[in-house]
Amino acid sequence: MQMINDMSDNKNFKSFIKLWEGAITGEAFFLPVIGPVYSAGRPLGGILNDILKNAENNKFLDYDKNRRWFDYKEEIIPIKYLIAGEGWAMVPVLKKDYLDIYYFSVVPAAAKDLEKARALSKGLINEYRVNKVFLHFNRRPRINRNFLRSQIFIKKFISKDPHYNAPENIRLLAELGGSALAKIGQLGREKEMEGFAALAARYQEKGLPRAPVYCAIEDGAIIGAIGPVEATEDAWGTKFFAPPFFGVISSKRKQGIGGRIWRAAEEKAIDLGAKYTLVQNDPDSPAAIFYQSAGFCPATGRYILKI
């Protein structure tokens, strides 16, 4: 078992990254601070090194998609509490008044691994006075507990459909006039669409972005939307469709509207050079069902336990 107590010890630092990389499985997975990542089998040493070198400041990495919405990152990785062994690694992340501990392992965690996480959390609780602790496993543990689940879904793009034309009721937000932004914000009153209120507020603060937002229109009202549609570069320089805000009001769901909005956004993302997109949801949610019907494939998930 190895802990990093000296950030300047380059040999120790590289050793931890090697152990961490060895504990990550699959081509798509969740990384602390960054979120869902698709490596396509490419080496992980660079991105893991970037995360840890940037661990204790509030600046976003250039390829962190969250920098679209926030001026600075809130998550801090306390380097001295990193811990790893052969086939596993634990990475603690502090955010406001709670602590996330990410447990990566080649084999499912057992009760003894839960105790290791508890022991690690005690020092962090004492030092940082956090109120809540959540443990995230990259595979289902061999522990008889009820876990929250979060599933990553991936869709790899092949090529744009040259014959595609968006339906007439799918319009760009920028074409809808000054009141449309307020209408987008009102979508945030719907359950599971709260993000649109934040989206509208951000746009009002910063001005409408160049990245498009597609809206579904019915009788002059916005009944669904998706955006912003952007192709940003990942840690390896590959463009991907960064996860957008997306939703249809509850009274208009299961009528194919979401599929039409998504298709318009996807075709635009491909046109911008995106090669894939990633989303994450509860695997039993309606959203997960939708994404799979739209051609997404389930990748790895997270099993989350409050301790």
What does it look like?
The chain has 307 residues and is of the alpha+beta class. It has 2 domains: 2-152, no CATH class; 158-274, Gcn5-related N-acetyltransferase (GNAT) (Aminopeptidase), CATH 3.40.630. It has 7 helices and 16 strands. The chain has helices spanning 10-22, 45-53, 111-128, 180-186, 195-206, 257-271, 286-293; strands at 2-3, 28-31, 35-38, 83-85, 88-95, 98-105, 132-137, 148-156, 170-172, 214-218, 221-227, 231-233, 239-241, 245-248, 276-281, 297-306. It has an 8-stranded mixed sheet with strand order 1-4-5-6-7-16-8-15, with helices on both faces. Helix 3 links the parallel strand 6 and strand 7. Helix 4 (180-186) packs antiparallel against helix 5 (195-206). It is elongated, with a radius of gyration of 21 Å.
Keywords:
single chain; about 300 residues; alpha+beta; Aminopeptidase; 2 domains; 8-stranded mixed β-sheet; 4-stranded antiparallel β-sheet; about 30% strand
Along the chain, the helix and strand elements come as EHEEHEEEHEEEHHEEEEEHEHE
> Radius of gyration in whole Å, from Cα?
21 Å
- Total helix count? 7
The order of strands across the largest sheet is 1-4-5-6-7-16-8-15
Measured as a percent range, the helix fraction is: 25-40%
What's a concise summary of this model?
With 307 residues, the chain is α+β, with helices and mostly antiparallel strands.
Secondary-structure blueprint of this entry?
Blueprint: E1 2-3, H1 10-22, E2 28-31, E3 35-38, H2 45-53, E4 83-85, E5 88-95, E6 98-105, H3 111-128, E7 132-137, E8 148-156, E9 170-172, H4 180-186, H5 195-206, E10 214-218, E11 221-227, E12 231-233, E13 239-241, E14 245-248, H6 257-271, E15 276-281, H7 286-293, E16 297-306
Parallel strand pairs: 6-7
Antiparallel strand pairs: 1-4, 2-3, 4-5, 5-6, 7-16, 8-15, 8-16, 9-10, 10-11, 11-14, 12-13
Helix pairs in contact: 4-5
